[in-house]
Write a structure and sequence with these properties.
This protein is α/β, with parallel strands linked by helices. The chain folds into three domains: about 210 residues, Rossmann fold (3-Layer(aba) Sandwich); about 160 residues, Rossmann fold, CATH 3.40.50.12780; about 110 residues, 2-Layer Sandwich (GMP Synthetase, Chain A, domain 3), CATH 3.30.300.30. The protein is about 35% helix and about 20% strand. The strands form seven sheets. Strands 4-3-5-6-7 form a five-stranded parallel β-sheet, with helices on both faces. Strands 12-13-14-15-16 form a five-stranded mixed β-sheet. A hairpin with a 4-residue loop joins β17 and β18. The protein is globular, with a radius of gyration of 25 Å.
């Protein structure tokens, strides 16, 4: 791919509008029609053209103007993937606003925190369960002026009535009617405003400064609430240009086909969608539950995924008897046209990368954080090592602190956390280097290896960042539980070691016979875990647990003098017990 046309730094919506004369009637997104089997190119897919996508973006931008959203104000999108998600995000940016994604997996409390902390003026929401979560945390939406429902078929009044029938508190009907409106109504308001001044949209979009925030993502800390990470248009566009320079040899000048399933609420998924806008992809949008089945039908040339799916693809081919048979199986599973493959969100096992490469599929992997827009290093198509996360991008400076922590500096590094000067100060050295919280080393030929994590954050195989302390804290007041230690870095789900309060358990079980005592204890612990799981997003829940017999103690080296758990020591001492929960 020739990237000369992309050298100018631009805000993300311009990638759609600058190429509209040549791409306008071509398909930008392909959407599945019905639940049955499909093949790419037949009548089971419905096309959304570049022109139709651009029209939606323009309508949203002018809607934002019509309701008085000012430059650099925030608007949230709380929804699963759909074309309107991307149209809303780019419309907000074109209106000089800041898009704040909210994970569709967030609980009502988690979503409410993001909406309230970000001071969002507008919220876009989709699906009945997420509308319920908005209504359930209504007090947090006090400064929100408009809530746009992306699916016109959703009846918010009926959802509220159903909640009332279940005995749940919901806001008065007058408040719901005042704030909620449909997608079609919002677009109509935007189009009417556009008709009043047909130059206003271009004037506003072209006037957005690269130095102002264009998006703000919330990232998990080691404990407490997530932190808002504002990224300027310059942060993101510099990183995008670096990324293109790195990967252009594997991308087509004539437009690639990708299978888009990564959540747009994550910078990985949003980045894939924006890359598609820049490079002219035709993106087949599918649900995470169906992506594996759609791969051989769509036959994408570009595929980006988290490690768990790459591992599944590799596993299906490993049992074939010969190299030729394994290559054939990979082609059957993936459609046989893959040219550019990326794994992100968490580390992919080296043996998986090597197996795929030996059988014709090169998976590129890099390293970065939300705060770095996101990529710091990446392997290159012509220079890669599977035991590393690649070399620094052209605009990135990296160095190692005395303790090995990776420090980063450059135009793609954010400037500080939203409304949190203390966390901002802690995130940077006095010289202005961003502290990644990861420990690394450089190979003799300049590749970066990640060897440890200073921060207590688990990154699941699905790419979810989970602070274990937040989950463990929810057991702090449980009389039957002394300690819970959550485990699951690079795993498909979380498990836990549980240390019970023996005196409280003995008193509770009372006269239970010895032969039934173990089962009674497991049932008691499961009940306590179920209670906490009900307060968590699905990816945070504890799926399995082991009751540990030997108490944790300061003398045994498992607790600090202030009785905090020494996580790494516990992981080392109980590694076999934790790992056995995955067998």
């Amino acid at each position: 791919m020739d990237i000369k046309a992309f050298e100018e730094l631009k805000i993300a919506p311009r990638a759609v509008f600058d190429t509209l004369p040549e791409r306008g009637t071509r398909p930008r997104f392909m959407l599945p029609v019905g639940p049955g089997p499909r093949r790419a190119g037949d009548g089971d897919w419905r096309a959304i053209t570049w022109g139709a996508h651009a029209r939606q973006i323009r309508d949203v931008a002018m809607f934002c103007a019509a309701v008085g959203m000012r430059s650099a104000e925030r608007a949230c999108v709380f929804a699963p993937n759909r074309v309107e998600w991307m149209s809303a995000a780019l419309g907000i940016q074109a209106a000089s606003g800041v898009i704040v994604p909210v994970y569709a997996s967030n609980t009502a409390e988690q979503a409410a925190y993001v909406v309230e902390h970000s001071d969002a003026r507008i919220v876009f929401v989709d699906t009945a369960p997420l509308v319920e979560r908005v209504l359930a945390a209504w007090k947090a939406y006090g400064v929100v002026e408009r809530i746009v429902v992306l699916d016109d078929a959703l009846d918010v009044s009926r959802i509220a009535a159903d909640m009332r029938a279940r005995g749940l508190d919901v806001p008065p009907a007058s408040e719901i009617e005042r704030k909620f409106l449909s997608w079609s109504r919002a677009c109509a308001m935007g189009r009417a405003r556009d008709g009043e001044d047909d130059k206003a949209f271009e004037r506003t979009m072209l006037g957005v400064s690269l130095e102002q925030p264009g998006m703000m993502l919330y990232t998990s800390g080691t404990s407490g609430n997530p932190k808002g990470v504002p990224l300027t248009h310059r942060n993101v566009s510099v990183n995008g240009l670096d990324w293109l320079r790195n990967n252009a040899p594997l991308l087509s000048d004539h437009g690639d086909v990708d299978l888009l399933w990564l959540p747009m609420s994550h910078i990985f998924g949003f980045g894939e969608a924006c890359l598609g806008n820049t490079c002219g992809f035709t993106s087949y949008m599918v649900d995470p539950r169906t992506v594996f089945n759609e791969l051989p039908k769509v036959r994408p040339t570009v595929f980006m995924s988290v490690p768990s799916l790459w591992e599944k693809i590799a596993t299906l081919a490993m049992d074939a008897p010969t190299t030729e048979a394994r290559r054939a199986k990979l082609a059957e599973v993936t459609g046989g046209r893959l040219r550019f493959c990326l794994s992100g969100g968490a580390g992919l096992k080296r043996e998986v990368k090597e197996f795929l490469y030996e059988h014709g599929v090169l998976v590129i992997e890099g390293y970065g954080l939300t705060e770095t827009s996101p990529t710091l290093t990446i392997n290159r198509p012509d220079a890669f090592r599977f035991d590393t996360v690649g070399k620094p991008l052209p605009s990135v400076e990296l160095k190692l602190a005395e303790d090995g922590e990776i420090l980063a500096r450059g135009p793609s590094v954010f400037g500080g956390y939203h409304k949190d000067p203390v966390a901002t100060k802690e995130a940077f050295t006095p010289e202005g280097w961003f502290k990644t919280g990861d420990v690394g080393r450089f190979t003799e030929d300049g590749f970066l290896q990640i060897i440890d994590r200073k921060k207590d954050i688990l990154v699941t195989a699905g790419g979810k960042n989970v602070p274990p302390a937040n989950i463990e804290q929810k057991f702090a007041d449980d009389p039957f539980i002394a300690h819970v230690v959550v485990y699951g870095d690079a795993k498909k789900f979380l498990v836990a070691g549980v240390w019970v309060n023996q005196a409280a358990v003995d008193a509770h079980l009372g006269t239970v016979k010895a032969e039934a005592r173990e089962e009674a204890l497991r049932l008691l612990v499961q009940q306590r875990i179920d209670k906490v799981n009900a307060q968590l997003a699905s990816y945070e829940t504890i799926k399995k647990f082991a009751v540990m017999e030997r108490p944790l103690s300061v003398e045994g080296g498992m607790l600090t003098p202030t009785l905090k758990v020494r996580r790494k020591k516990i992981y080392e001492a109980y590694l076999e017990r934790f790992e056995a929960l995955y067998s």
